[in-house]
């Protein structure tokens, strides 16, 4: 998954979550996050950066159009899967000429501005935790 696709995917998740919260289908961001398996801090962040105004609707008297938008938003959020087998493969080139089949990593909640999913698995640079050494020219000369 390219970074652009990941950002688009995350934007669709955000729009769907905000719609369901504004219509009071879910009263709190925490309830919505737990229902769909999203990280709670991410949903709280999305909700905090809106006007937080709700427009309660009577679910017995919804128009077919409103029902469709609610259903689409719910399906979008249900499409989010933390389960690895449903995420796209890493695709990094391996030494034998094959491609990596591991699923891409999920970014931590603080980095969801870049998109929910990284472009690679943990092993191939998705969220690798390697130390990067910075060399100072002053140390080299001494």
Describe this entry's structure for a reader.
This protein has 5 helices and no strands. It is an all-alpha fold. The mean pLDDT is 80. Helix 1 (3-22) crosses helix 4 (64-78) and helix 2 (29-36) packs antiparallel against helix 3 (40-48). It is 40% helix and 0% strand.
Strand content: under 5%
- Radius of gyration over all CA atoms, rounded: 20 Å
Order of helices and strands: HHHHH
Helix content: 40-55%
Largest sheet: none
Mean pLDDT: 80
Helix and strand composition category: mainly alpha
Question: Based on CA inertia axes, which overall geometry fits?
Answer: elongated
Ranges where pLDDT stays below 50 over 5 or more residues in a row are: none
The separation of the N and C termini measures 46 Å
Annotate the secondary structure layout.
Elements: H1 3-22, H2 29-36, H3 40-48, H4 64-78, H5 137-141
Helix pairs in contact: 1-4, 2-3
Give a concise summary:
With 142 residues, the protein is mainly alpha-helical.
Descriptive keywords:
142 residues; mainly alpha; elongated
